[in-house]
Amino acid sequence: MEPLVAEAINENWSEYNLPCKCEQCKNDVFALTLNNLPPRYVSKENGVAYVRAQYFNKQMMANIYVKIAEAVNIVAKNPQCNNLKRG
Ligand SMILES: [Zn+2]
Predict the structure, then answer these.
(1) Each residue's pLDDT tens digit in the chain (87 positions)?
(2) Residues 6+ apart with CB under 8 A from 26
(3) What is the CA(82)–ligand 1 centre distance, in A?
(4) 3-state secondary structure of 21
(5) Residue 28 in contact with residue 56, Cβ under 8 Å?
(6) For residue 60, what are the contacts with CB-CB under 8 A and spacing of at least 6?
(7) CA of 72 to the centre of ligand 1 (A)
(8) CA of 64 to the centre of ligand 1 (A)
(9) Interval between CA 87 and ligand 1 midpoint (Å)
């Protein structure tokens, strides 16, 4: 099963308007996106959150992109990573 959220983020990562694009910021966007998706879309088996393939459809993919955009905005306004915390 593909980790669709991670794949969607990776595909567009270079285009997101973020002050920092390190791995931690990417992980923050990923975690926030998953938190904001309905639980039935997400499986936490094996400790990894995957979107269940049986729920995958165009409407859901659109929802995922909306949630990713929201997560990007949150991380951009309030970055948690050390690169942006000094000073
Ligand atoms: Zn960062």
Answers:
(1) 247 788 899 999 999 999 999 999 999 999 999 888 876 655 555 444 555 555 557 777 888 899 999 999 999 999 989 887 755
(2) 9, 13
(3) 7
(4) coil
(5) no
(6) 41, 51
(7) 12
(8) 22
(9) 15
